């Protein structure tokens, strides 16, 4: 191992081969602070060439490699196991914007670029990069691509996969594959790009990407609607889509308990309604004409929804500050739940048409498994993705409640499967769901995944123990 570390120091500089516990600690613990692995070193290359050199050394010395971006993942995909034989490959120094092409509506960026930086660079060119999620101030594009991240704009723009036109990848053999052409049409064989997107670093290391940009909307209008049931939320979604079409860019469902948690732990935030309601929907419209036009459309949607009895009340943001305040209600749910204590999280998706039935049926099943537990259900209703989380009953210690995690996971994920859904909508599998997915994927799918892994990474050095 000393020989390997000496070779790494020669390849990328001794200052970027971290072995002291004080230097490596921040790379070894997952974002939720529940798991800490061990590593022979944290390696921090500066560019693609240095990354390729490190991968070749890992192949030569048979050292497993764990690629890591901002380390904001939620399924233990970016931290090593406790065996202590793997090296962490941090891509944070690969943080350059290589090119912005406003005419082609593309931006070429390196994997370590922070998502928020990419958004800002796009805005500086009068363009929009629409990927948006709670960790955007610290997550990186490489991680977003490796997990095929979702976020709040999937309804209009799709997952990260749909926002990428090409990749630069270091293969498990240390070779560089580049498809950074910025083409929207290239029908010349297998789409190798799609193999690496969503693979969580198990097939190769993404070092750069060409991302899609869009014209900046002339106006964005936000509304918060109060209603009784998820079934009514689906009726509101149908009404809004029929009136707004693709201009509807956000449609988020939140239960009353979610927002009560936010109000409890973020005391400066208040709901804009005089009374409580069972469910809320946050809607956003991005308009290419004007704010007046967008507001007129939203007023029409809200007015019709009130007349039809779909919603009980609504407010349309009258300023950017009010719009941000409404979005903060949604974005602070996860943090508020963390402040409340440990909880059992599920990142699931089911067909949009079946969401209301899924919530009703699964809530009953979970209550049978853990009476009086508190459901924290929220998420991207417009694309079928729910964060279906479970908090302990009042007065029950969270450490005691977490012991039920396996049993509750089984209840929820079996229900997801019966409804034709997925047990991981946008977070990936990582190590956390690697075994569980075998219960829900068909043998044919699993065999094909293993065949691809064996073909591209025959020595199982790329993020071993993750996904499959």
Automatic annotation (TrEMBL):
Its cofactor is FAD. It holds the Pfam family FAD-oxidase_C. Keywords: FAD, Flavoprotein. PROSITE patterns: FAD_PCMH. Coiled coil: none annotated. InterPro entries: FAD-bd_oxidored_4_C, FAD-bd_PCMH, FAD-bd_PCMH-like_sf, FAD-bd_PCMH_sub1, FAD-bd_PCMH_sub2, FAD-linked_Oxase-like_C, FAD-oxidored/transferase_4, Oxid_FAD_bind_N. One of its GO terms (molecular function) is catalytic activity. Residues 35-216 form the FAD-binding PCMH-type domain. GO terms for biological process: respiratory electron transport chain. Gene3D superfamilies: 3.30.465.10, 3.30.70.2190, 3.30.70.2740, Uridine Diphospho-n-acetylenolpyruvylglucosamine Reductase, domain 2, Vanillyl-alcohol Oxidase, Chain A, domain 4. Belongs to the FAD-binding oxidoreductase/transferase type 4 family. PANTHER family: BLL6224 PROTEIN, D-2-HYDROXYGLUTARATE DEHYDROGENASE, MITOCHONDRIAL. This is Hydroxyacid dehydrogenase. It comes from Herbaspirillum robiniae. The lineage of its organism: Bacteria, Pseudomonadati, Pseudomonadota, Betaproteobacteria, Burkholderiales.
């Amino acid at each position: 191992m000393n020989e390997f570390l000496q070779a790494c120091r020669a390849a990328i500089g001794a200052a970027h081969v971290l072995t002291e516990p004080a230097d490596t600690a921040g790379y070894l613990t997952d974002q939720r602070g529940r798991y800490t692995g061990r590593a022979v070193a944290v390696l921090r290359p500066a560019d693609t060439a240095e990354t390729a050199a490190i991968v070749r050394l890992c192949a030569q010395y048979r050292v497993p490699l764990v690629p890591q971006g901002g380390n904001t993942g939620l399924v233990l995909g970016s931290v090593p196991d406790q065996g202590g034989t793997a090296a962490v490959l941090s891509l944070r120094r690969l943080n350059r914007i290589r090119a912005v092409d406003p005419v082609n509506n593309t931006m070429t960026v390196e994997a370590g670029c922070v998502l928020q930086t990419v958004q800002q660079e796009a805005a500086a060119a009068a363009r929009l990069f629409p990927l948006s999620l709670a960790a955007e101030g610290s997550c990186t594009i490489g991680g977003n691509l490796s997990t095929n991240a979702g976020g709040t704009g999937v309804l209009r723009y799709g997952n990260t996969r749909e926002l990428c036109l090409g990749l630069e990848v270091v293969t498990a053999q240390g070779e560089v594959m580049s498809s950074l052409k910025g083409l929207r049409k290239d029908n010349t064989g297998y789409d190798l790009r799609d193999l690496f997107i969503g693979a969580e670093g198990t097939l190769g290391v993404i070092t750069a990407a060409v991302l899609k940009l869009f014209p900046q909307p002339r106006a964005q209008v936000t509304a918060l609607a109060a209603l009784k049931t998820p079934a009514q939320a689906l009726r509101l979604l149908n009404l809004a889509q029929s009136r707004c079409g693709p201009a509807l860019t956000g449609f988020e469902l939140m239960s009353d308990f979610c927002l009560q948690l936010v109000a409890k732990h973020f005391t400066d935030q208040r709901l804009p309604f005089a009374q409580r309601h069972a469910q809320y929907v946050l809607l956003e419209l991005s308009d290419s004409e004007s704010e007046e036009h967008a507001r007129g459309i939203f007023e029409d949607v809200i007015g019709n929804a009130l007349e039809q009895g779909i919603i009980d009340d609504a407010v349309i943001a009258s300023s950017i500050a009010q719009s941000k305040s409404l979005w903060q209600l949604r974005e602070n749910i996860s943090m508020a739940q963390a402040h409340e204590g440990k909880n059992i999280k599920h990142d699931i998706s089911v067909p949009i048409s079946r969401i209301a039935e899924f919530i009703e049926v699964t809530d009953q099943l979970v209550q049978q498994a853990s009476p009086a537990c508190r459901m924290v259900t929220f998420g991207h209703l417009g694309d079928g993705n729910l964060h279906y989380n479970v908090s302990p009953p009042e007065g029950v210690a969270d450490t005691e409640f977490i012991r039920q995690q396996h049993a509750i996971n089984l209840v929820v994920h079996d229900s997801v499967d019966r409804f034709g859904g997925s047990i991981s909508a946008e977070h990936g599998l990582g190590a956390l769901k690697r075994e569980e997915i075998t219960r829900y994927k068909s043998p044919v799918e699993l065999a094909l995944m293993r065949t691809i892994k064996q073909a591209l990474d025959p020595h199982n050095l790329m993020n071993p123990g993750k996904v499959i």
